[in-house]
Each structure stands twice: as structure tokens, then as C-alpha cells.
Amino acid sequence: MSPHVLAARYIAFAVLATLANLATQRLVFTGAGTMPQLEPILVYCTAVAAGTLTGLLLKYVLDKRWIFHDRTQGLQAHGRQFTLYVLMGVATTAIFWGTETLFWLVWHSQVAREAGAAIGLSIGYVVKYRLDRKFVFRQQGWSTAP
Question: Which regions span the lipid bilayer (predicted)?
């Protein structure tokens, strides 16, 4: 696969995962709007966590199959690989959450929060690709970068 095709796929999958993340957050915020007794910080943390989980699962499935062409099978192998994938995402998630939260705290609007999330996710995905290539899917021997 050419570096351009790889980059295009990775970007497309990052966009899909970002949209899934933000859509999940909106669902949580919308549902919480019907329960005004909930603390705003609890709603915010729940929305961010639910969105992160949704985006993470979608991105893992897409990356595994279409970016790294990994054919690992078996529950133990998948468990190990997904655990590494999640661990590589800890630092990148901190970038994403930090940027999203900063935008929300500064501008107090959903549009700003989502812009911060998109910026943070973009930076995080570039870092994550490099970590995944080196530590999670290393047996594939990828040497190109998006």
C-alpha cells in the first residue's frame, strides 16, 4: 500500500472515529438535558468517557484490519493486542481530553468544546499511529507514516 493510500485511510478512519465520538457525546448531553437534576460535571465526564470508548472501539477495528492488515485471531491474542492499543491511547487521550476541556472551560460552548475535541483528536491520532505501529502491530513491519 502506498503511503498516500495509507494516509488517506488513516485520516478517513480518524474522522469516522471522531464523528462517532462526538455523536455519542451529543447523545449523552441530549439525554442528560431531560434530567436537570444531574450535576453538569457528571454529565460532561460521562459524555467524554462514552464518546472516547465509542471512538476507541471503532478505530481499533478499522486500524487492525485496514491500516495494519493484522489477522491475529484468538481471544488471548486479541485481548493482549487491544490492551496494548488502549495503553498507547492513554497519552493521546490526555491530549484530546485536555484540549477539549480547555476549549470548554475558556469559551463555555458546545461548539468550542467540539472544536477543541477535533483539534485534540487530530494531534492524538498522529501520535497514536506512531505508537501503534511501533508497539501494537509491530509484527507487520510497517515503515511508512501518514
Answer: 7-29, 41-62, 82-105, 111-131
Q: Which triple of cell numbers denotes residue 25?
A: 457525546
The runs of H, that is alpha helices, within the chain are 3-33, 40-62, 75-107, 110-131
pLDDT at 142 over 50: no
Could you give the angle at which helices 3-33 and 110-131 cross, rounded to 10 degrees? 140
Question: Distance between CA atoms of 18 and 9, rounded to whole angstroms?
Answer: 14
Residue 130 lies in a domain: yes
**Three-state DSSP class for 72?**
coil
> Which structural domain, as residue segments, surrounds residue 105?
3-140
The single-letter code of the amino acid at 93 is T
Domain count for the chain: 1
84 domain-assigned: yes
The string of pLDDT tens digits covering residues 29-39 is: 999 888 888 88
